[in-house]
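Predict structure. Chain length: 152.
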Amino acid sequence: MQSRQVFQQSIQIRSSATVVERCITEQDLMHQWLNPALRCDPIGEWNTEVGGRFRFVIQIPMLQPALKSVVLEREPGLIVWGFDGFFKGSDRWECQPQETGTRLVNQFEFEIPNPLIAFGFNRFAATWTKTDMEAQLRRLKQVAERQYRRSP
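Prediction complete.
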């Protein structure tokens, strides 16, 4: 039996929503905050519009499992990646402009079709994944605030 899981967190960033969005959608900025064990490679040209395809590779020596991903939704301040592999689901990033900057909401919604992988994930990796997602948001905040200070 598959069960859908949702991990959601948000962070307040002292930056414009436009700069925060660039940090999520531009390759060089994304790789500044992504977990160093995770790599995002485009399939073809880098394209964060609907239909853009990517491969998120977990850089584990000798294994390097990957999730194929496609951009499902895209509008100003919003990007949703859908993925299929050992996880099936979506990763939603939404920039919400605020008086003091931007509230960034990240929602990772997924199921794990293979019961053995699901057991292993729930037993060993779920807590680490939540913690890592929070750490990524803190790193993204640093990148966005640094970029915002640099902008004219």
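Summary: Residues 115-150 form the longest helix (36 residues).
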